[in-house]
Amino acid sequence: MPDSKLDLLQGTLDLMVLQTLAAMGSLHGYGIARRIEQVSGDAVLLNQGTIYASLVRLQQKGWISAEWGTSDNNRKAKFYSITRGGRRQLSADAAYWQRLSGVMDRVLALGERALGKGSDT
Amino acid sequence: MRHRLRQFVQRFLSYFRSAQLDRDLEAEMVSHIEFATQENLQRGMSPAEAARRARIRFGGTQQARENQREARSFSLMDELLQDLRFTLRTLRKDRSFTIIALVILALSIGANTAVFSVVNTLLLRPLPFPDSHELVWIAPPPTSCGLSCATYSADAYEEFRDQSLAYQGVTGWEAFSTPDNLRLSGRGEPLPATGIDVIGNFFQVLGVQPAMGRLFTADEARGGPHPVALLADAYWRRQFNADSNIVGKSIELSGTLVTVVGVLPASFDFGAVFSPGAKVDLFTPLDLNQQRNWGNIVTLIGRLKPGVTTAHALQDAERVAPNIYFSTRFPETLGRYKGALIPVPLKQYVTGRLSHSLIALWASVGAILLIAGVNLSNLLLARTAARSKEFALRGALGANRGRIIRQLLLESLVLSGAGAVLGLALAMALIAWLTQQGSLALPLLSTLRIDTQALGWTALVAVITGMIFGLLPGLRMATSNLQDVLKDSGPGAGLGRKHERLRSALVVSEVALACMLLVSAGLLLRSFLKVLDVDLGFQPDRAASIKVDYDDSAPTDEASQTKRGIIFQQILERITALPGVEAAGMADYLPLGPNREWDTPAPQGRTFAPGELPDPLVYVVTPGFIHAMGTRLHGRDFSWSDGPRSERVALINESAARVYWPGEDAVGKILMRGTEQDRVIGVVDDVHEEHVEGGAGSQIYYPVTQQGPNGAQLVVRTKLPPAALAASVLRTLRELNPKQPASEFRPIRTIVDRAVSPRRFFMLLVAAFAALGLLLAALGIYGVISYAVTRQTQEFGVRMALGATPALVQRIVLARTLKLAAIGVAVGAMASIVVSQVIASLLFRTAPSDPATFLAVMFLLIVVALIAGYFPALRATRIQPAVALRCD
To answer: How large is the ipTM?
Structure first.
């Protein structure tokens, strides 16, 4: 398995979807998946199909809404957009992730210094 | 928090719109792939390549569907529903397995529920009275003497009531009334009725409120001016068509107009609590003043004050007892009841004797459940063995082991749940039947019902059974190696063999359990046969009795005795003249029923230490009664010339003769009762007066022409079946006395049957459970051997191809059967030695280690095992080598 691709942590996909919708407005499932792949520089290991579990979960929580519509090339598709609750959740989650990644950076740096070894990644 | 609630609701709702959600997802996925394909085409790929790449990037569509479904709903519930559907499908498919399993479960759970209801009613549940734990039965310590031992004089009752500090109330009833002691007339032909005189506060002390009308007033309890009665609910319904205006009406009882003051509630059944197997129709207040000279006549029941324990009550009774007179008119009777006033919880008096039998019964249904569980475990193991490939395949396709175990557990729970429902129906039928068994002398039977506790017990039993028999195969499955199973070819190797060892162990334990049940049943059966063999001192067959109404009222005792003699002589002459009648006689009490004693006769010219002489039971009889009962007599019977003015005569039984004149012939000797002399004219066999199983005490018989009988039971010995004679006997009695009620002409055998009915009841139940256990064990053996034969088809084929005869193959299979059975029987026999010691107190003249029973059971089990093994053995001999070797 190519080790350059990242396995998604639980919950990260939901955050990515929210962020994508916040940035791009209304998108269908394929659009969201493509967008995430592009932004990550294809570094994320994503079966595009898994996006639909995330979408239904976010929808049930009331963070995004969905509506059937027609795409540019005249195909029927379901378009998702972020709700006000979704935006609130996004800012909360984003702050959380930033804090967490800051802490992780510091912890990992500490590990390298103290153990004098490379990590086992 | 709001989003969680929202999500919960949405997830829940998703179950109702899952079709819509699925359609949406399908449409989304289709357009998703199309978008991707479109984009790939724009990048210059060929159409086929574009579509292929699009699908690769999307990943598995099925996986996407499942992920989405899991995300939108409660995954556990989803899976459970799925598993449930799957379970129902598999069970439907495997119909014969399902039916066998359900039958086994229904029988064993049904038996457990029914027995639990009986145990709960008789042993666990309080008596059907408010605060029934406060109620105590006051009697001397249990001795061999009869009911009159457990009774007290009117004076003693009043003294005890007034001096005791422990009670809210003390009451009792007149203990010596016999069935059909009243005559209800004025409504067509006279009908018999059973009434009991109770002390005025009887119902108040028990806490029974009338369903209609009122209880007795204090005035009525003292023999008020108007006779009154309370009707039992069943009698009110049967005799008075549940007349809602009955209160205040008068009914004619034995020639007296009595006012009905109330109807008792249906929940109050005197017979069920105090006199199992008997029914009481109505209650009248007991006038203690009229009873003062009649000796010990009332039983005692007390309601303790709140917080007073039985131990306190006992101390209080010991303090009071020395101050109590038998009769206040005779100062020398002070202290007669010392040590004879022992309060015990009423519940213990009513059902205490049965606790051993009930616990044994409970244990035996428990054993049945265990055997059934083992059996089903075995069946399921066989099934999982056959299905191991299916499970391995499911495992390989990604189902985790937990899910597979859960699946198996669910299967067994569904089975046991369905079995419990069927079992409950069975138990209900059984209980309904039991409550109708009026002749079964067990207390509280009429109050039996399947209540919420029984339902709870059934559910508990079902769940535990399901867990036990489902978990073992499940764990077995989970610990087996998937690859091994998949590599296994044919039903032969590896896992199969391991399974078989486990299954053999299970069958051995089944046989052992069945052996224990059979030994217990065998010992109880033998005891029962011994009980039936007991020489009762009379011949119960071909004899029947009927309660006779007569009027011997006369100004003096002597005139009354003469009048009675004439009436009885006439009755007996007419009855004896009926075709088919061999002999006839009358007595006031029959054996194995209520009885009384009234004096302490002493042999003339001998001295005995106080307390050494017995108080014999008294029967007042006509000439011919001893003969009609089939009791042996040495000396002469009474004759009609033993009248009021001739010498006082008596018959005594052998036990009495041994006490009075040991080693001598009692005939012709004199017994003194105070200053009265009775000449003993004959000695009769000991008659079992109270229990079939107990011994007999001293008994004395007086002629009706010299003493006053308490009613009369006509006993007719006949060459015909008693039923054939019933009409002509009643007609004859009616001709002589038009007031004779249509009482039942009851075979004496039924009296004996009633007396042994509890033992028969327990014996039959344990025997039925043992038979069920045997059947299940046989089924288990058959299953294991049959499976082994299937597994060894190839091996047998090879052997037969190499020259083994069918007889040899059959021997091999039967030898294996025998080995299993022998181990099971050996283990079971050893365990039975322990079990039989535990039930030793339930046996009658049978040693717990009775070799005949043990040997018979072992033989039976081996024979049944060989029969169970014979069919698979037969199949083994019919294996065609060519076919066997070809098959996989």
So the answer is: 0.84
